[in-house]
Amino acid sequence: MTSSLRPQLERVRRAWRASPLPRFFAWWGGELAFLVPARSRVLFGGGAAWHLLERAGDDWRLRRTGSHDMLAQWPDSLDAASQQVALADGLRGVDREDLRLALCLPASAVLRRLLMLPAAARDTLQQVGAFEMDRQTPFRAEQVRYDIRELDTPAPAGRLAAELVAVPRTTLDPLLARLGQVGIAVDAVDLGVDGGRLGVNLLPAELAPRRSHPRQRLNLALTAACVLLLALVLGQWLHNRESALAQMQTQVETMRAEAQEVGGLRQQLQDNAGAAGFLAARKKSTVSALAVLQDITQRLPITAWLERLTIDNAGQVGFQGQSPQAARLVDALKDSTVISNPNFQGTIQADPSTGKERFYMVAQMRKPTAAKTAPAAPSSNGGKP
C-alpha cells in the first residue's frame, strides 16, 4: 500500500467505525449465526480470534484476549521447534485463518501521552505523531516504534483528543528479533490493559505477516453467486412483468376489437331501427294506392272507367280513362277524402272507337289525418276498375 493511499483508507476506516453499521452488522450476523447448523457455522463462521503473547522474565506466556487464564507457558531457552510446539499446543482448536497473535508489552515499557490536536490533523495522525515526538518524549521519531489513536474523550471545539503510544526500539526490536529466530510471527504489538489490548499497533509495517484468506475467497465467491442469483431473480421478475404486460395488452386489444364490433352492431341496430321507423312513419303518413283506387272507383260514375293509375313519391296521383261526360268528373272527385285538387291534364279528346271522351287527370294525395274522415258512400253504380 502506498503512503498516498493510506490517509484515504484511514479516513474510510474511521468513518466506518464511527457509523452505526458495524454494530448493526455484528448484531445481525450474531442473530443469523444461530440459524446456521453448528458444523456449517464452523465452516463459514470466523472472525479474528486474538491471542496475546507476553514476555515474563525468561518465559513466554499465551492467553486469550479478555482472559487472564494462561493457555501455555514455555521458557525462552527452548529451541525454535519446541517453542513452536508449545505455542501450537496453546492454540489447539483455533482456526489458523482466524488466529491473530499480538505481542503485549508491559505498561512500564511504553510511553503514553495525551494530545489535543487540531481537528484538521485527523487525517494525518501518524505524521503529527512523528512531529510531536520530540516535544512529548525524550526520543526522536526514528528511535521509537509508535502509534497514535483518536480518543472518544470530549475536546474543545475544533480540536480532537488523541493518545500517542511509543516504545523505544531498543526495547521492542530485540523481542521481535527473538520471535523471528524461533519462527513465531505476530500480527500486532500492543499494550496489555485489563486482560485485553489497548488498541494500538506498534509493529512496523514491513514486519507484518502476509496471510492468505481462503475463507475470504470463498466468501467473495458466495457473494458473487448471491449477486448473480439476485440478478437472475430480478431478470426473471422483469420477464414475468413483461409477459404479464404483453398478455394484458393482448387482452386489451381483444376487448377493443370486441368493443368495436359491439359498436358496429349497435350502429347497425340504430340504422335498422331508424330505417324501420322511417318506413313506419312513411307508411303512417302515406295513403296506400289501394285506398286511392278504391276512393276514385267509388266516386266515378258507372259509365266511366280507368285505363291507368300512377302515384309518384311526391304524392301526386295521375289517372287516365274514358267517360261519356269527362268534364263532370272534377265535381265527382272534389269531395274525395283521399285526393285533393283534381284537374285535367291536357285536353279532353273523343275516342271514335268507343264514342266516349278520353281524359287524363292529376290530383294530390291528402295527409292521412285528412283521410281518416269517413269515406263517401258508394254510388249506385258500384266500383269498377
Automatic annotation (TrEMBL):
Keyword set, alphabetical order: Membrane, Transmembrane, Transmembrane helix
Protein known as: PilN domain-containing protein
Matches recorded under InterPro entries: ATPase_NBD, Extracell_DNA_Util/SecSys_Comp, PilN
Transmembrane segments: 218-238
UniProt KW Transmembrane keyword: yes
Compositional bias of kind Low complexity: 367-378
Pfam family, one: PilN
Source taxon at top rank: Bacteria
Annotated region described as Disordered, given as residue ranges: 366-385
